[in-house]
Amino acid sequence: MDDEEEQRRPAGLQHLLRPPSNPADHEGLQISDDMFGGSASSDDASTGSEMSQSDDDDEDSEEMGDADEDGGGSADDGGWTADITHFDPPCFSDGETVGPVRDVTPDMRPIDFFHLLVPEPVLSAIVQQTNRYAHKYQLKNGRDEEWRNVDLAEMKAFMAIFMYTSLVHGVFSEDISALWEADEITYNPVMASILTQRRFQRIMRYFHVVSSSGQQQGDSLRKIRPFLETVQNSFRNEFKTAQTHVIHEPPLEEEPLMWSRHLDRKRRKKKRFNLWVRQCTATGFISQVSCLCVPPCLQCTATGFISQIHIHVKEKSDSLSHHEKGYSVARDLCSDLIGSGRNHIVFCIPANTSLRLFRELESHGVYGCGVVTDARHTDCEGLPASVLAKPPTSLRKYDSIVRTKGRYSAVLWNSPRNPFRLLTNAFSPAAQGKLVVKKNRRPDEERPCLEAVQAFQNHIKYIDKYNEKYSWYIISYKPSKTWQQLFWTVLSLAMNNAYIMYKLSPAHAHSRLSRSDFGAELLRAMAGPYYQEPPTQGEE
């Protein structure tokens, strides 16, 4: 990339697209382990714009002949041509400020950040609906002598026990009663003392979020709809996002690491819903240890804030095709970006990528970049056949075939492993980027590639790394009722978003809590007077 092209590129996107100037600094694209506390499960996981390649692969690429000259588009390319014209990427109108919208003081606690996203009136409404349902149930089925109305403090303590399952990954996936069994390895006397097992089970029996009256009976989310909408609004209104977002499905199905002796594995039920999210992301991170910014700046902090949620409950009567479902999901997740005039860029997985979607989003000032696979997983209608076809044998590794139509580019990039196809209208087909290639027995190298390829690799690989860490901090208990699974899943997202808000605020510089410490302090605050600190060593 020459100096003239570098100078005319808007400064707002340079930190999102450019790799480190020194190949030895490629670890700067990785997420700091401090983001979630503790190290990742794999030290050599590929993140950012990194790629790995063996020396044998490199030798094979050198032996390949020169690529054929790329002529004009073929007759079956539907108007797509090989003509490449440079254009500037969309400039973000809101600058680079990312983080909580409200003024945050250094002494704010984890519970304060949590209540920004899940306000106390929402929890009070849950208390009211639980007591109302218990009364209604007993009028119909007879008095429950063991029941007494729950108050707000006890309901928060009840939720704190579920939050505990997010700090002991996979242990209580289906059998939370093991928490109170003294002869089990899962027994925790401090947590067991918050509520007795019988009281916990009574609250769980009557636990309700909203009243069923007045809700549409055909709505599969009617039992949590008001709660979901309130939390969604908090996600949108309490956090200012960056320009770039990723639409994907976060991992929610985790195999338990431990099984209770009372648990029959055959009772395990499949998840009856799909959850998609639109997640704010940015690249160009450096190690948090070396960051001296207060509050931490966008350049040195991983965001990953989930801005929008889309839930689809699986029904036998589903009539939408795979492509229609992917389009409608992406359209819904981008609803609050449409018409904002801020020039957002959305990165999509194959199920959500389509020329139809990108054209509609562009008409409302939102740009897209998505990976294309086969016609079964991606809506390939309108895309050039020369890009969808198998790459010619003469195409060298790291080289590309590009077809353009107006602002749109369809790219076939010959990666070291498998062909990689992209559709984008956010990045110029003439702009070049770089990828850091990790060698087994030689120093890492930089390889040229299209800017769109580099940007997609940066953002998607970052989200993969985020999910790897995030899956250790989700409420692992899976109740049998689908609406309860959804409730605890959304609460998990709120807890994680609360930590990201804390991380991007002056409060982090004051207390510097890891993700696990943040969750533990939030748990103690939720339990309130029901939480008894364990005796210190030497006390009886």
Automatic annotation (TrEMBL):
One GO BP: non-replicative DNA transposition
Bias (Acidic residues): 53-71
Region annotated Disordered, chain positions: 1-100
Pfam families membership: DDE_Tnp_1_7
Originating organism: Branchiostoma floridae (Florida lancelet)
Domain PiggyBac transposable element-derived protein: start-end pairs: 110-499
Composition-biased stretches (Low complexity): 32-52
Superkingdom as given in the UniProt entry: Eukaryota
PANTHER family: PIGGYBAC TRANSPOSABLE ELEMENT-DERIVED PROTEIN 5
GO molecular function: transposase activity
The protein's name in its UniProt record: PiggyBac transposable element-derived protein 5-like isoform X1
Residue ranges of coiled coil: none
Database matches in InterPro entries: PGBD, PGBD5
Entry GO CC: nucleus
